[in-house]
Design goal:
The complex is a heterodimer. Chain A is mainly α. Chain A has two domains: 240 residues, Cytochrome Bc1 Complex, Chain C (Up-down Bundle), CATH 1.20.810; 103 residues, Helix Hairpins. Chain A is 64% helix and 1% strand. Chain A contains 16 helices and two strands. Chain A is globular and about 75 Å long. The termini of chain A are far apart. Chain B has two domains: 41 residues; 133 residues, Rieske [2Fe-2S] iron-sulphur domain (Rieske Iron-sulfur Protein, 3-layer Sandwich). A three-stranded antiparallel beta sheet of chain B has the order 1-9-8, with no helix packed on it. Chain B has a three-stranded antiparallel beta sheet with strand order 2-3-4, with no helix packed on it. In chain B, strands 5-6-7 form a three-stranded antiparallel beta sheet, with no helix packed on it. In chain B, a hairpin with a 5-residue loop joins strand 6 and strand 7. The termini of chain B are far apart. Classes of the chains: A mainly alpha, B alpha+beta. Chains A and B meet through helix 3, helix 5 and helix 10 of A and helix 2 and helix 3 of B.
Amino acid sequence: MSTEKGWGMRAFDWFEERLPIVSFIDNSVGSKYPAPKNLNYFWNFGALAGLVLVIMIVTGILLAMSYTPHVDHAFQSVERIMRDVNSGWLLRYMHANGASFFFIVVYIHIFRGLYYGSYKSPREVLWWLGIIIMLLMMATAFMGYVLPWGQMSFWGATVITNLFSAVPLIGDKIVTLLWGGFSVDNATLNRFFALHYLLPFVLVGVVVLHIWALHIPGSNNPVGIDAAPQDKIPFHPYYTVKDMFGVGVFLLAYFTVVFWFPNIMGHTDNYIPANPLSTPAHIVPEWYFLPFYAILRSIDDKLTGVILMFGSILILFVLPWLDTSRVRSASFRPIYKVLFWVFLIDCVVLTWCGAQVAEGLPLILSRVGTFWYFFHFLVLLPVIGWIETPKPLPISISTPVVAKPAE
Amino acid sequence: MADAAENQTVPTEDESRRDFLLHATVATGAVGVAMSMWPLINSMNPAADTLALSSVEASLAGLEEGQAITISWRGKPVFVRYRTAAEIEGARSERWQDMPDPQSDEERVQNEKYLIVIGVCTHLGCIPLGQKTTETRGDYGGYFCPCHGSHYDLSARIRRGPAPTNLEVPEYTFLSETNIRIG
């Protein structure tokens, strides 16, 4: 190799001196970002969430080119996308199922954080930004679901906007403001479309902050102790390759659903055009809202139900202080480890309850589930942190690996 | 990758094998991404219902000699002019070989009475004037594009101005003496 630089490298250096964007990317997710060497496959889901966000934005922009946000044309324009637009069915099924897979990926990402204590000091702001991302995703998904203007779209929009009528004194005024009228109508559809197009780009901005906040302390790891510099490896190529493998597995699962089971996570009622004069017998939100919906319905008081529903997400903001244990990874916390799995099961049970008619067993279970949800955060986590004796932590993240053969 | 390669102590044989795997993987991935782009880009092409609108039928029965009508086809105006005997004579008497886009009037009409052309200026797409009796018809008595001053004659051939070619003749058939289908 000659020491003389080629014209390509000189041009690259010239550009980098003026806008060091390549080294910025390299520092963020490239060879200059040292990551702990023991990350397992649960650390793939952040990158996967980023991939789904890109897929959603690309397919969404193309769908918007063929969609008409008007009460008289919205439903038919979606049917036209399905039948007449070239590959329109693919765009729509990728987008609709992409929303579900976005939540699958992000929920796994969140539970990964809960298990390995990724929310604890010094990653609280990183955790907050993650919650903001989830809230933005929920708002975007909800408004996107309204756009096809089927029965579920319309009545979902009616029910969710009516949540705000629970606000004392000014509730009705807030709802009228949200609607831009006296019911969910054309003005509502128009603004939901505008916001559904806007929020993903806000989401991108918060994702950039999320990654920024990640790079200050660096990635957490399955052992949960701070990784020493010699225990870190460059993100590229080691984790880009690992992420690419995850992407392959993810795309197989995603396109299996897109191609063969495209409506499995949707509701058939949404293929009926919106009818403001008739509510379907059994309306349920999309599956990713079900646990929160179950919490809402578990209480007989309107305002309390709404407060608990929003509270179930907002409580995550103070989780870094509710959990009083300084040990991050559940691997070293025998009691918390059990509580984590109980909490996961609790969320699954609430999801199931949210899909049922709110009476009998599902209602009892959603009440127990709601109680446990808050009991877990407000009582168990603070108390366990004090009474639990964690297993001895290894000195470095290499120790458990090196020690294994000796066992 | 450069860092990893420098620290390698494995035999060269192994390295070339690894290089092959890397290049094959990257190439497969690049082809896959490129192929998956196609349905996305193709979705912006005309949809099936747009293509289904690609022909229109019209009756010329109400059209008197010297009159013109405009028919909308694929979102564009189609000019139909019932030319007078004098106008046909005028369009055919001039020496077409010297015109900017040489074409005889016989080539441009199926029935000499009816001049049927797409009313979109071949310069930059404006609609030329001349269909209505109150509009200027330019220096050659056919059409005049007000945007950048292109003059067309009674066979809608470009005679002067920036337009490069004559007004386009659409594909059309006479279904009967006075019924046409465009497209």
